[in-house]
Amino acid sequence: MVLVILRRIGIFATTGIVASIVTFLLLAILPGNAARIALGVQATEADVAAQATAIGLDRPAVVRYLDWIGHVLVGDFGTSAVSRQPIGPDIADALGITVILVLASVVLALLFAIPFGILTAIRQRGPDGAIFSSISQIGVAVPGFLAGLLLVTVFAVTLRWLPAGGWVDPADDFSGFIEHLILPAIALGSVQGAVLSRYVRSAVLDVMRDDFMRTARAKGLGTARALFRHGLRNAAVPVMTVLGLQIATLLIGAVVIERVFSIPGLGSLLLDKVALRDLPAVQGIVLVLVVFVLVLNFLVDLAFTVIDPRLRSES
């Protein structure tokens, strides 16, 4: 068990290092001069050259990468090329909002996908199973931004039950925070819940065909009881694999949803910085997004060792 965890940590660390190198190189080769962006289009070539020297753009790429990643590891993401303010505090504030939105969406997606997928699998041969399957197919086909717009139109504009957008800090007003979180979390989580329910259905159907499930039913257990007592743990392994991939999709979808609902999360911050061509800020935000996905997938890998005892004995 300990060796498995250490191996997962080693893979996570290696992947994180590679991701930081790729992020640095991709943004380093983009067209545009960070020194000119900082000084403005009216700056002379001499001023741009002096600014480039001041921020270290004349140094070799390897030296710049090591300096950048060294500061990032201690929480220093540098200074914005546009506002000349530290990048770290803005990223930290936006990341907290995005984490809340994504985690709330994951919870909603699971609350929908697990019972819905199981019910669809158990009732696959009945007319209600066909209806449930059709509902999930429709959910898969609806884009997240369209779901958000529909929710705003119905619940914010027409019924006036919930706010159409914005964000409230939970420390300031918890009830207001919940009201502003409901619609974007549903918009982001419902589509992924529909996708995940298809995988839950497929995993449950595969388990129901296994020999041990037939043995359990032969001993007198009903289909549902045999599934809940013996089958769900086996069905959870492929579902967890898909969930790890969907978390990355949720994070990408959050960029759009944050714009639809005017939420000041990491996605909105990234789009703002891209529009301003603030390359140091974009570099830091992209790295944080990548590491966030890696951390969540690392946690999913650890969950495998809890769900599947066979993985605990890996050497």
TrEMBL record:
<keyword id="KW-1133">Transmembrane helix</keyword>
<feature type="transmembrane region" description="Helical">
    <location>
        <begin position="281"/>
        <end position="307"/>
    </location>
</feature>
<feature type="transmembrane region" description="Helical">
    <location>
        <begin position="94"/>
        <end position="119"/>
    </location>
</feature>
<feature type="transmembrane region" description="Helical">
    <location>
        <begin position="235"/>
        <end position="261"/>
    </location>
</feature>
<dbReference type="InterPro" id="IPR035906">
    <property type="entry name" value="MetI-like_sf"/>
</dbReference>
<dbReference type="InterPro" id="IPR045621">
    <property type="entry name" value="BPD_transp_1_N"/>
</dbReference>
<keyword id="KW-0813">Transport</keyword>
<comment type="similarity">
    <text>Belongs to the binding-protein-dependent transport system permease family.</text>
</comment>
<dbReference type="GO" id="GO:0071916">
    <property type="term" value="F:dipeptide transmembrane transporter activity"/>
</dbReference>
<dbReference type="GO" id="GO:0005886">
    <property type="term" value="C:plasma membrane"/>
</dbReference>
<keyword id="KW-0812">Transmembrane</keyword>
<feature type="transmembrane region" description="Helical">
    <location>
        <begin position="181"/>
        <end position="200"/>
    </location>
</feature>
<dbReference type="Pfam" id="PF19300">
    <property type="entry name" value="BPD_transp_1_N"/>
</dbReference>
<dbReference type="Pfam" id="PF00528">
    <property type="entry name" value="BPD_transp_1"/>
</dbReference>
<dbReference type="InterPro" id="IPR000515">
    <property type="entry name" value="MetI-like"/>
</dbReference>
<keyword id="KW-1003">Cell membrane</keyword>
<keyword id="KW-0472">Membrane</keyword>
<feature type="transmembrane region" description="Helical">
    <location>
        <begin position="140"/>
        <end position="161"/>
    </location>
</feature>
<feature type="domain" description="ABC transmembrane type-1">
    <location>
        <begin position="95"/>
        <end position="300"/>
    </location>
</feature>
<protein>
    <submittedName>
        <fullName>ABC transporter permease</fullName>
    </submittedName>
</protein>
<feature type="transmembrane region" description="Helical">
    <location>
        <begin position="9"/>
        <end position="30"/>
    </location>
</feature>
